[in-house]
Specification:
heterodimer, A: 140 residues, alpha+beta, 6-stranded mixed β-sheet, 2 helices, elongated, B: mainly beta, 5-stranded mixed β-sheet
Amino acid sequence: MEMTRRDIFALGAGLAAVGLINLPAEADEGMVKEAIEKFAGGMPSAGGVEIGAPEIAENGNTVPIEVAAAGATSILILAAGNPNPGVATFNFGKLAGESRASTRIRLARTQDVVAVAKMSDGSTAMARREVKVTIGGCGG
Amino acid sequence: MSKIKPRVKVPKKAKAGEAVTIKTLISHPMESGQRKDKQGKIIPRKIINKFVATFNGEEAFSATIEPAVAANPYIEFSVKLAESGTIQFDWTDDDGSVYSAKKKIAVS
């Protein structure tokens, strides 16, 4: 019997359902909430943080991301659908030109990127943005 | 394993008080600890976990980095300087090694 790609996919999904192969675990919203609260000391209100990201990332192994928040002393980046949500924390000193930084991140699948900012006056803010991923990037 | 090599792009000159963009790159596989080898064993995590940029000894920008940052980590940020000096960049590997680069910048 010839195996079409559809058959192989269905077989894999079936095996995963039975637990015979391991799909990478996904961070649940509880882990994301915990990471946010640990950084911000509470749940920040939305707004005041920009996330620059492609709408569709062709390659989940390297997705360009930019974060900015006027007046922020640090910004935490989380990937809500990765096995672990933590990505990076940027800290801006007095000599930083603006509270803005870019990097490239790994996204395992289509998911929200979350950015949480801490300001010099102690207030916090956050934003969340979905990035669609065509080929996942967790090396599985 | 290919060599771990930092590269930075810093303008040679800047105006005092003007934000200048700094681009940094370090060639590093950023082994996440999620991948398995052909025998099915987990390849251990080995990443750059911290990046610090200091200007004339004062920390201007830093990043703590997790395995979700892509291989060959690229970090771009900006600085606003009041005087000429040297920017030092340091990347720390999980194994304790520190890789560094330095660039002079003339501010007028």
